[in-house]
Amino acid sequence: MRQFNYILKRLLHMIPVLFCVTILIFLMIRLIPGSPAEIMLGDKATPEKIAILEEKMGLNEPLIVQYGLFLKQIVTLDFGDSITYARPVLELIQPKIMVTVGLVISTTIFVLLLSFPLGYLAGSKHGTPLDSGIKTGALIVISLPQFWVGTLFLLLFGLKLHWFPVGGWGDTFLEHAHSLILPGLTGALTTSALTIRNLRSNVIDVVNSDYVDFARSKGLTEKRIKNRHIIRNSMISTVTLLSLRIANMLGGSIVIETVFSLPGLGKLLVDSIFARDYAVVQTVVLMLALIVLIVNLITDVAYSMLDPRVRLE
Amino acid sequence: MEPILEVKDLKTYFITKDSTAKAVDGVSFSVMPGETFGLVGESGCGKSATCRSILQLIHKPGRTVGGEVIYKGQNILDMPPAELRKIRGSEIGMIFQEPMTSLNPVLKIKEQIFENLKDKNLTKQQKHDRAIELLKLVGIPTPETRLDEYIHQYSGGMRQRAMIAIALAAEPKVLLADEPTTALDVTIQDQIIKLLGKLKTQLGMSIILITHDLGVVAQMCDYVAVMYAGHIVEKADTNTLLTAPRHPYTYGLIRSIPTGLEGSKKLESIEGMPPDLNNMPEGCPFAPRCKFKGELCTKVRPEMRKLGNGHEVACHYTEKLEGVSGLQSSEKKV
């Protein structure tokens, strides 16, 4: 019950945060020089033509009126039409959100699969060649650019071995999942390098802690000491780090979506910024902010389940 | 009577590439059933390392390189890990100095008690009842609600009681108590010492009490060994040791306790610092600080000498301390 109240409270807290996001994004996109009309009409546009189109698009209204219109759109969940695609923004975004969220989920799964076993191994074999190997490997991986790793993966696993599609998103769930494996792995490498190092140092601390000695003095088996006393305590701060990185993954999805030709939000966002497609940019940023807030909420709840010292209030 | 635990010539060294710190260097003592044995010394003298060596809880680069720990006729140091696990907890238990860091912060107190219960085949209800019984035994009020709490929800004194309850769950015959009162304030300290004394009699355990506090020794121990720089320098029953010390270091320690009876007299202290364990002087390790040192002290390491009545001392010139008194018996209980 306390948990439910807490979640409800946090959901309500999101409203003012999202409100601030709307102001920021509304002003920012309009601060970029060049109006949408100018860009739509191209190089040969005359000032008269631009003025007519701006009038038609409602860009001559005072900013506050335009902002009011934007807020009204949000409340009515009708986000207007895209000027480049001439379609309702919501219709445009819906399938792309699935791709980006899928990419983040796939990346997170790979981060978990890579960093938990390797981080634990490095920490518990602290000071051995295995530990140095994992540490050095992580350092190398963290300095590799994602677009380059992604391209290498495509060349090897896509073109040469034909294990994975070279690009695109497929039509069925299985095809979606299949096409998200390489992008997820690519995205996971950088984050894993961080979480491996973090988990490794946590494990070293916990293994040398008094409570592990106390557990050992009880005559528990090493397996039980590991499962009950070491793993959970080591994970706590790594989970926080991971959630911070998830926000990063959303921002960084553009590179991976471009390399793997995934029709996601990242690519749409960049295209729309260049086209000054205000409605699309505003909506996409708002959606990304919402996803980040939800991920944070999930992290906080997970954190309180891992660590009883953290109280949900 | 046979001793329940015998430590013979124990050597635990911390070996790194550049140096070897001899934290425990040839320590021997024995503990009788039902006895409280005190191991006293200042920080870094090797008393904790001795205690941890008994249960093989030394961290790298530390290693027990020699000696024996005989429990019920078997050398613990030779045991394979599976045998050692049977000794840990249910034969020899241990409590640590700082309960806040020695109990797992993310497990409920009851989970930490359950995993140490002697009888592994109890039903859930039986485990629960036994845990309540243990918390009552160590004097934790409202044990039913306390069982479901975590260590950070306990107060300082309660934390130490909880740790004792957890260690007692396995019903050990010997309890190693590594400075169990050092992290507590004085009134709580007294409560915990009294509790340990009561439990010892009630459960018929032996206790090895590691402390730097001679007041605690006076209150609780039957027999005491004084450690200095990895060596035991004096062993005697508590009364003899406190009233008629025969090692200059013990004498110095006793003279530096405030008794409240000195009036305006300045408290004595032992000049100098303990030697570097990586680079021990030849001869007696205490010689550089000793007021009574003679010619032999810087050349030959003194062996333990028996003075009778179980009193042993490692000093060439112990005669110089003959007739020198430590604490007066009226000052003893401070």
CA radius of gyration of chain B is 21 Å
Oligomer: heterodimer
Looking at CATH, which topology of the largest domain in chain A would you report? MetI-like fold
What series of H and E elements makes up the topology of chain A?
A: HHHHHHHHHHHH
3D shape of chain A: globular
Write the CATH architecture name of the largest domain in chain A: Orthogonal Bundle
Please give the order of strands in the largest beta sheet of chain B: 6-7-8-3-9-10-12-11
> What proportion of the residues of chain B form beta strands (DSSP E)?
15-25%
Quick overview of this protein structure:
The complex is a heterodimer of chains A (313) and B (334). With 313 residues, chain A is mainly α.
Describe it.
The complex is a heterodimer of chains A (313) and B (334). With 313 residues, chain A is mainly alpha-helical. Helix content of chain A is 78%, strand content 0%. Chain A has twelve helices and no strands. The radius of gyration of chain A is 24 Å and the shape is globular. Chain B is an alpha/beta fold and 334 residues long. In chain B, helix 7 (156-168) packs parallel to helix 8 (186-203). Chain B starts with a strand and ends in a 21-residue tail after the last strand. Chain A binds chain B through residues 208-211, 213-222, 224, 228-229, 232-233, 236, 306-309, and chain B through 52, 55, 57, 59, 81, 84-90, 93-94, 96, 98, 101-108, 111, 115-116, 150, 152, 163, 166-167, 170, 176.
